[in-house]
């Protein structure tokens, strides 16, 4: 749903954008992470927050052109921050289907854009975790309901209709409001950090001024 909302975005020539939409679907890409990446549930949730934080900081939405590279980079960084054991960049480049040199470049780009501020708010994480638990529960209920309604009919065909409708509704009612709240929190944090930087710089300037005056006056 996030990429669908930004499907009309133009192709931009920045590091995370592919020249064309990758052939691997987001669902298949996520499944590859699950099977081969050894990511914990916590790490995957943190990686989603990191991805959205990058998108907010650089003021460019997540699209079908950049989501794959953003996913592997944010997942790799989250694993390095959260997991006791993690793979090296060579393996993550294999997992993401990109060259090692590009993986290294994307990692540096991601961290540089965030100013190496890889902090995640506990409340944002806990709220997302609750929503994911609710999503899994309600998704199972939708599948059971679809199966019960399809006695003697094509269950898979019914699910192909019901599940996307449920996903779009859950995104609109729960995940999009959470994303808006996350962006508000990120904006407030950026303002606080900017104020702190100004205070710090003013202190440095004042110390430099005092040092210069002492040198100049001989006091």
Would you give an account of this structure?
InterPro entries: Cyclin-like_sf, Cyclin_PHO80-like. Keywords: Cyclin. The protein has 219 residues and is mainly α. The chain folds into 2 domains: 7-132 and 164-176, Cyclin A, domain 1 (Orthogonal Bundle), CATH 1.10.472; 179-218. 74% of the residues lie in helices and 0% in strands. The protein is built from 8 helices and no strands.
Write the layout of secondary structure elements.
Layout: H1 2-5, H2 26-36, H3 41-58, H4 67-82, H5 89-96, H6 100-113, H7 122-149, H8 155-217
Helix pairs in contact: 3-4, 3-7, 3-8, 4-5, 4-6, 5-6, 7-8
Largest sheet: none
Average pLDDT rating: 84
Structural class comes to mainly alpha
CA radius of gyration: 22 Å
The tally of helices reads 8
Number of domains: 2
What separation lies between the terminal Cα atoms?
Answer: 67 Å
CATH class of the largest domain: Mainly Alpha
Write a brief caption for the model:
This protein has 219 residues and is mainly alpha-helical. It has 2 domains: 7-132 and 164-176, Cyclin-like (Cyclin A, domain 1, Orthogonal Bundle), CATH 1.10.472.10; 179-218. Helices cover 74% and strands 0% of the residues.
């Amino acid at each position: 749903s996030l990429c669908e909302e930004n499907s009309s975005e133009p192709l931009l020539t920045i590091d995370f954008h592919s020249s064309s939409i990758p052939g691997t679907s987001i669902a298949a890409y996520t499944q590859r992470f699950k099977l081969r990446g050894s990511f914990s549930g916590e790490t995957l949730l943190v990686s989603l927050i990191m991805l959205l934080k990058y998108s907010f900081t650089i003021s460019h939405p997540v699209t079908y052109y950049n989501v794959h590279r953003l996913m592997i980079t944010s997942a790799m960084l989250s694993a390095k921050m959260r997991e006791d054991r993690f793979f090296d960049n060579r393996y993550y480049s294999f997992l993401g289907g990109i060259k090692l040199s590009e993986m290294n470049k994307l990692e540096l780009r991601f961290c540089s854009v965030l100013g190496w501020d890889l902090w995640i708010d506990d409340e944002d994480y806990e709220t997302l975790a609750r929503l994911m638990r609710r999503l899994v529960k309600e998704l199972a209920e939708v599948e059971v309901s679809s199966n019960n309604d399809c006695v003697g009919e094509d269950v898979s065909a019914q699910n192909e209709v019901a599940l996307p409708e449920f996903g779009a509704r859950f995104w609109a009612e729960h995940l999009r409001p959470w994303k808006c709240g996350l962006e508000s929190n990120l904006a407030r944090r950026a303002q606080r950090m900017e104020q702190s930087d100004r205070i710090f710089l003013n202190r440095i300037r004042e110390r430099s001024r005092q040092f210069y005056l002492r040198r100049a006056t001989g006091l």
